[in-house]
Specification:
Elements (H helix, E strand, L loop, with lengths): L1 H5 L5 H11 L6 H28 L5 H29 L3 H23 L8 H19 L4
Length: 147
């Protein structure tokens, strides 16, 4: 069940709510992985839209804009990785799947780091934390898929 599989992740509550919102068909590790990747993709798209909006604000400093640009590039890369992860899951390519999902976590954390390095407060810090947790859940669900 969704609950059983989600309880094998580090963030079961997030898993249960996001998988439940995106699950198509029967709950099994593969369908749940697809649902969690979809949730992560949606969150990444909304975070990317937020950084574009904040960067367009005339009151944003040049340092803020530089960090936001880094975030946007990382979100774009994360979206590519999520797409590649979905394809890898369909092809039962565990190595590529794990590599792409790990990259998503790194991209979200790199966005946060770009603000921290400049001693700035990130407007997408919460989104980045969720993305890292969703990425972690994807990896945990993938280990249960037994390709």
């Amino acid at each position: 069940t969704v609950v059983d599989i989600c309880h094998q992740t580090d963030y079961p509550d997030i898993c249960i709510s996001t998988v439940g919102a995106h699950l198509k068909g029967t709950a099994n590790p593969l369908s749940m992985l697809a649902a969690e990747i979809e949730a992560c993709t949606e969150k990444t798209k909304s975070a990317a839209a937020e950084v574009v909006k904040v960067a367009a604000d005339p009151s944003a400093s040049s340092a803020d804009k530089m960090a936001l640009r880094t975030c946007k590039e990382n979100y774009d890369s994360a979206l590519d990785s999520l797409s590649n992860a979905q394809k890898a899951a369909s092809a039962h390519d565990v190595g590529t799947l794990n590599s792409e999902l790990s990259a998503v976590i790194t991209y979200a954390s790199t966005c946060d780091d770009s603000f921290t390095e400049l001693s700035l407060k990130s407007p997408v810090e919460g989104a980045d934390r969720i993305l890292q947790k969703l990425g972690s859940n994807c990896l945990a669900i993938a280990t249960q898929a037994h390709f």
